């Protein structure tokens, strides 16, 4: 597993009106990392993901992915290059079934979406079923996505993100709303994906046991600025981090 | 001059349309149809009183009030059922109203044109630096200005006006403050239709009242609101003036092309700045 | 599989229809097919992609005029006119759609309406080319299709072929991508799809089939007028789709059957058709929002939940 830099963020800035959501943030990830970004609510984590995935345009700064400058790229192009994202608030296709949700991502990745004449139900059967199994959604295959319980919705989020066969995945609170057991299952899956396929993963979480249990590197964000970075132990020992965030945590 | 009076007529129609859309997010296709009903009512009232000198001056506000009542009925029976629905259903409802009102006009007033004879005060020309100007045009423009000022005062200076402006900006905020949104909606709709009805009555003595006038006008009213920006009084005013002037100028260079020019300008605005010149920018 | 049997039955019925009903009603049947085709093409944008195009009649009209003018002015055979109409309508849809797909919701609706009116205006005013408000008369079908029955079978054949093509498109990955764009355009961007490009492609395809429907109308009606492109005519496929139900492929066709029948029936004894259809639409919008298909589906759900679950088939 080559350990080159897969993501490089340089001095990223974004303000909304008068509010500075991202303040001169620089960040780097190497291939195969399993890292986390934490910070209190409003720290700018989601904005950071939004900037990296093309949802917002930064005011200044650069983003490099696999060496390519993607700073001003639209979301669909960035996804094609190899970044996928699982959203904090489930961003699914509520009227389609779980199966159809996952299949849509796979068909897009296989570049079959301009196919006008082959019935879709004949395509990508194996890949879709595999992905549903991996993410533990085989039981819910035919359920309408809008009716899924919260935990399953988050799992479907993950499945859709994986459907794009990304090299880098952003997970926004992947275990929110899950029971202890579901959380464990999901994070074990995340860990397996990272170790077995070498998927580079960056996630945010409020559950500190998850963060410290799985992340190998931690970055702390506060009011849009990086205030601490390092291994979990280093961050735990960092006074700024303690004051701002960990000290608030029960 | 005719560009200005055309603009004023459009302003009177578009102001209610813009207000209703800005606050309630409902595009009232039937707005011009109700405007036309206002013209017909004005004629009917005037007809019964035409021997009196004040006939027209009484018919206009009366027609406006009748339309306000009709607007209230429509809001209560129909419009309020689609507040929570999606856009297509709302559009279809108001579009169906266009068809219904069109036939209702036919049933009650028949197919013949109606003409209101202007009272002597406004029949003749007024001379402005030696140029004769139709005095009724001046009246129309005065009414337009009065409505504009009235609405401005309402929106800027009264408590209700402030609530309405806040509602254009954010419905949730107003609701969170404990102000009943449904009552605001009813009030705004009735106000919008009142203005439309009065506008129709005011327009009635200009030329004749014909079936189908609403069709030509509603599209132009849409263009005005798009160009000026939904929910903005200033935008509606500017939009009407722009459209009125396009009319005036195209008569000189390309008489046939007035409407085409208006559509082209509207299309350009929609592509470049969909929320109009003075509307609140939003994610499209 | 039950559904295919049902369809087959309807089709068989359609094939033998002229044996049972008189010329007037065959006339109505042709109208149902043409307008139904128009409505199904509209639904590709509305039901499948989730946007309301209030100017779809523009492409119908362009298709009608391409065929009409080629036949009247250049005596081009109908068989060649049809694909040319589709191409002409497609080009219009490409140009107009390029601007429209940058918007969604109410802005999309108004922009498509504005462009539709622009096309109406061009056809109306360009008297030297299109004979404007006078309309184009004397569009005569080829001798083979001169009788109503013959034209009926011709239209049935073309419409069926078109419907089959559109059905395949709706069930293809592209069709599902349309549903994805409808349900969550943002998400669709994040799985790598250039939403604007796909919306444009769909818009053009829908325009082409509307053009085909318009092309069929000319020789049927023997004359065409600019009215075919105005925003009133754009309302017709919207009505049909809403009545029949926008979320099933055949909804608009069902709507066409109901609408056209109703219109033929009502105009037989009153001139107040707009009043009637206006009331019908309000009724459907307020009380039967899913249309006929939606109503049927909800009854089926109640039925299925009462029947013991054996195999759950995905509709």
Shape field of chain C: globular
Using DSSP, what is the number of strands of chain C?
A: 2
Most extensive interface, chain pair and sizes: B-C, 39 and 38 residues
Helix content of chain C: over 70%
Low-confidence stretches of chain A: none
CA-to-CA gap between the ends of chain A?
A: 38 Å
- Assign the CATH topology of the largest domain in chain A: Rossmann fold
Give Rg of chain A in angstroms. 18 Å
The strand order across the widest sheet of chain C is 1-2
| Helix and strand pattern of chain C | HHHHHHEHHHHEHHHH
Number of domains of chain C: 1
Unreliable residue runs of chain C:
309-315
SSE series of chain A = EEEHEEHEHHHEHEHEEHH
Quickly give the structural class of chain C.
mainly alpha
Topology:
The complex is a heterotrimer of chains A (250), B (284) and C (315).
Chain A: E1 5-16, E2 19-30, E3 34-38, H1 45-52, E4 60-65, E5 68-69, H2 75-81, E6 83-86, H3 98-109, H4 125-134, H5 150-163, E7 168-172, H6 180-197, E8 200-204, H7 208-214, E9 217-222, E10 225-230, H8 232-237, H9 239-244
Parallel strand pairs in A: 3-8, 3-9, 6-7, 7-8
Antiparallel strand pairs in A: 1-2, 1-4, 4-5, 9-10
Chain B: H1 2-24, H2 31-49, H3 55-77, H4 87-109, E1 125-128, E2 131-134, H5 135-157, H6 159-169, H7 171-176, H8 181-203, H9 213-228, H10 233-253, H11 258-272
Antiparallel strand pairs in B: 1-2
Helix pairs in contact in B: 1-5, 1-6, 1-8, 1-9, 1-10, 2-3, 2-4, 2-8, 2-9, 3-8, 5-6, 9-10, 9-11, 10-11
Chain C: H1 2-20, H2 23-46, H3 57-74, H4 78-100, H5 105-125, H6 127-130, E1 136-137, H7 148-171, H8 173-183, H9 185-190, H10 195-221, E2 223-224, H11 231-244, H12 251-266, H13 273-287, H14 291-306
């Amino acid at each position: 597993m080559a350990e080159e830099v897969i993501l490089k963020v340089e001095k990223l800035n974004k303000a909304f009106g008068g509010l500075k959501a991202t303040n001169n943030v620089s960040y780097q990830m190497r291939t195969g990392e399993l890292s986390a970004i934490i910070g209190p609510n409003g720290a700018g984590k989601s904005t950071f993901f939004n900037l990296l995935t093309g949802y917002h345009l930064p005011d200044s700064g650069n983003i490099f992915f696999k060496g390519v400058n993607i700073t001003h790229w639209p979301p669909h192009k960035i996804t094609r290059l190899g970044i996928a994202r699982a959203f904090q608030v489930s961003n699914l296709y509520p009227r389609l079934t779980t199966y159809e949700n996952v299949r849509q991502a796979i068909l897009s990745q296989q570049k079959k979406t301009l196919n006008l004449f082959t019935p879709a139900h004949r395509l990508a059967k194996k890949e879709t079923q595999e992905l549903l199994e991996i993410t533990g959604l085989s039981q819910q295959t035919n359920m309408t996505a809008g009716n899924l319980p919260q935990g399953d919705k988050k799992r479907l989020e993950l499945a859709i993100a994986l459907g794009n066969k990304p090299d880098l995945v952003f997970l926004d609170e992947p275990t929110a709303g899950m029971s202890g057991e579901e959380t464990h299952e999901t994070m074990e899956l995340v860990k397996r994906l990272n170790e077995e396929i070498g998927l580079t993963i960056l996630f945010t979480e409020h559950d500190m046991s998850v963060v410290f249990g799985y992340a190998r590197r931690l970055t702390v964000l506060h009011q849009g600025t990086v205030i601490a970075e390092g291994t979990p132990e280093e961050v735990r020992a960092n006074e700024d981090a303690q004051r701002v965030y960990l000290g608030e945590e029960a | 001059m005719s560009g200005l009076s055309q603009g004023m007529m459009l302003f009177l129609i578009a102001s209610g349309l813009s207000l209703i859309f800005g606050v309630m997010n409902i595009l009232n296709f039937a707005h011009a149809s109700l405007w036309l009903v206002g013209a017909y009512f004005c004629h009917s009232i005037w007809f019964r009183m035409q021997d009196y000198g004040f006939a027209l001056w009484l018919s206009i506000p009366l027609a406006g009030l009748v339309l306000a009542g009709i607007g209230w009925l429509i809001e209560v029976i129909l419009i309020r059922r689609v507040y929570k629905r999606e856009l297509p259903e709302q559009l279809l409802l108001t579009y169906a109203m266009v068809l219904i009102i069109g036939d209702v006009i036919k049933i009650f007033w028949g197919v013949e044109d109606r003409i209101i004879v202007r009272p002597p005060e406004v029949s003749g020309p007024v001379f402005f630096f030696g140029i004769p100007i139709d005095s009724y045009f001046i009246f129309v423009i005065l009414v337009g200005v009065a409505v504009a000022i009235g609405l401005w005062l309402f929106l800027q200076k009264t408590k209700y006006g402030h609530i309405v402006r806040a509602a254009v900006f954010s419905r949730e905020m107003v609701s969170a403050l404990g102000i009943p949104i449904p009552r605001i909606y009813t009030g705004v709709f009735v106000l919008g239709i009142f203005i439309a009805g009065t506008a129709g009555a005011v327009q009635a003595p200009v030329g004749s009242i014909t079936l189908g006038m609403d069709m030509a006008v509603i599209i132009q009213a849409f263009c005005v609101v798009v160009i000026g920006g939904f929910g903005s009084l200033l935008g509606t005013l500017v939009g009407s003036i722009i459209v009125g002037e396009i009319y005036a100028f195209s008569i000189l260079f390309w008489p046939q092309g007035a409407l085409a020019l208006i559509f082209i300008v509207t299309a350009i605005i929609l592509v470049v700045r969909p929320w109009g010149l003075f509307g609140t920018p939003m994610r499209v | 599989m039950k559904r295919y049997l049902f369809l087959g039955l309807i089709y068989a019925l359609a094939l033998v229809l002229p044996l049972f009903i008189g010329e007037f009603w065959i006339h109505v049947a042709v109208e149902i097919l043409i307008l139904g085709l128009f409505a199904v093409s509209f639904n590709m944008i509305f039901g499948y992609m989730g946007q309301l195009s209030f100017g779809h009649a523009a492409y119908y009209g362009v298709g009608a005029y391409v065929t009409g003018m080629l036949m009247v002015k250049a005596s081009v055979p109908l068989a060649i006119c049809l694909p040319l109409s589709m191409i002409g309508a497609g080009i219009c849809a490409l140009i107009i759609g390029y601007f429209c797909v940058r918007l969604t919701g109410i802005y999309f609706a108004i922009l498509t309406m504005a462009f539709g009116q622009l096309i109406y205006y061009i056809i109306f005013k360009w008297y030297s080319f299109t004979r404007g408000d006078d309309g184009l008369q004397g569009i005569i079908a080829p001798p083979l299709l001169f009788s109503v029955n013959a034209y009926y079978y011709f239209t049935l054949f073309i419409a069926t072929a078109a419907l089959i093509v559109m059905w395949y498109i709706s069930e293809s990955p592209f069709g599902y991508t349309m549903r994805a764009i409808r349900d969550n355009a943002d998400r669709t961007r994040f799985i790598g799809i250039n939403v604007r490009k796909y919306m444009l492609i769909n818009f053009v395809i829908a325009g082409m089939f509307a053009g085909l429907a318009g092309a069929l109308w000319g020789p049927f009606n023997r004359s065409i007028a600019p009215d075919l492109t105005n925003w009133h005519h754009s309302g017709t496929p919207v009505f049909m789709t809403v009545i029949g139900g926008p979320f099933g492929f055949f909804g608009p066709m069902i709507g066409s059957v109901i609408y056209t029948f109703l219109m033929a029936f009502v105009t037989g004894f009153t001139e107040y058709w707009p009043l009637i259809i206006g009331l019908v639409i309000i009724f459907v919008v307020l009380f039967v929002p899913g249309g006929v298909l939606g109503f049927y589906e909800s009854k089926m759900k109640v039925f299925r939940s009462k029947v013991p679950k054996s195999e759950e088939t995905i509709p």
